[in-house]
Amino acid sequence: MMIRKTIGLDLGTDTTQIYLEGKGIILNEPSIVAFNNRTNRVVAHGSEAKKMLSRTPSHISAIRPVVHGVIADFDMAKEMTQRSLRSEGIPKSFVTRMVVSVPTNLTEVERKSVEDLLKESGAGTVYLVEQPLAAALGSRLDIHYPTAYLIVDMGAGTTDMAIISMNGIVVSRRLKIAGDFLNQEIMRAVRDEMKLNIGEPTAEEIKLSAGSAVPMGERLEVLVRGRDVVSGLPKELTVKDTQVRSWLARPLKSVVEALKDLIEVAPPELVGDVYKNGVYLCGGGSLLRGVHQLFEKELGVAVWTVDEPLTSIARGTGLITEHLDQYKSLLNNFSSLKLEKM
User: Fold this and answer.
1) What number of CA atoms fall less than 13 Å from residue 66's CA on the CB side?
2) d(Cα 14, Cα 112) in Å, to the nearest integer?
């Protein structure tokens, strides 16, 4: 047993990632819990629970305890976190310090909920860092200089965008338009236009296989199966990339408009820095085909997708755990200019 360990945690809507000081990312599991309603017991979490999503009998519920980046079900989130922290490769210790990433513009109650959750899960000390800051650190951007970087973290539950300078967030915005929202748009459109009911896993497959933000050089299509709205019987259809692109156009336009609003309220000198340095994308949404081309066209600045965008936030919290004294000024500091949430 260790005397003390320091853990970096990205408790995301879609995945939970744990970084152990000196070891790197040692856990990357879906943020899903399968719960038996008859016995009031958790039967699975992580990858095992994800296999059950939309496929469980009535007495078992596969749920996401974290919705839009905030804790929606405290008890299930605590159970999931405790199980994750007991995973193989995470040693026991007398003292546990945690650095956890949180979305921008959280309320005091939402931040307190995260702290309580982790303290009840075994943490002695909890440090909070906003996700764009963690993503910038994980992407090795020199945010301690007096120059601005615009970070866009397109996750599953939220899209967090922030202009960062001198180790702090100058302006930020959080949208609930993110990966899960795009899946819901696909589910709705397939039901309304193609008269086929599909589940969220199928919508995710459509987005990954045929989704794009702008026309691509190749034609993409995917075969999907579901329940016919009219007959109620099983049915198979082909979905083309042109259809998916039209379904995703409206929510992606909302993200672009939010980015423009963010830039409009930023100090002019920092906007000049953003033009020089470009925009940096991370999170699962950044992997949507053509999304950086769309942003480049709409904003008129260079747009980059960071290396390993799915783990940039976890790596950022990990960097803080490795140099906690150096980065303590970044933690539990939420004084940025906040724009209205959507």
Assistant:
1) 28
2) 21
Instruction: Look up the CATH number of the domain holding residue 217.
Output: 3.90.640.10
Residue 155: inside a domain, yes or no?
yes
For the chain, state the CA radius of gyration: 21
The pair of structure tokens assigned to 207 is 């987005």
pLDDT in tens, 205-217: 999 999 999 998 8
> Would the CA dihedral through 342, 266, 338, 287 be positive or negative?
positive
Half-sphere exposure (CA, 13 Å, Cβ side) for 290?
A: 20
Query: What's the domain range around 202?
Result: 179-247
Q: At which residue do the structure tokens 């995710």 appear?
A: 204
Helix (H) or strand (E) holding 78: helix 74-85
pLDDT digits (tens, 9 = 90+) for 155-201: 999 999 999 999 889 999 999 999 999 999 999 999 999 999 999 99
Distance CA 19, CA 1 (A): 18
DSSP annotation of 212: B
DSSP strand pairing (168-175 vs 337-338): parallel
Say if residues 35 and 43 touch (Cβ distance below 8 Å).
yes
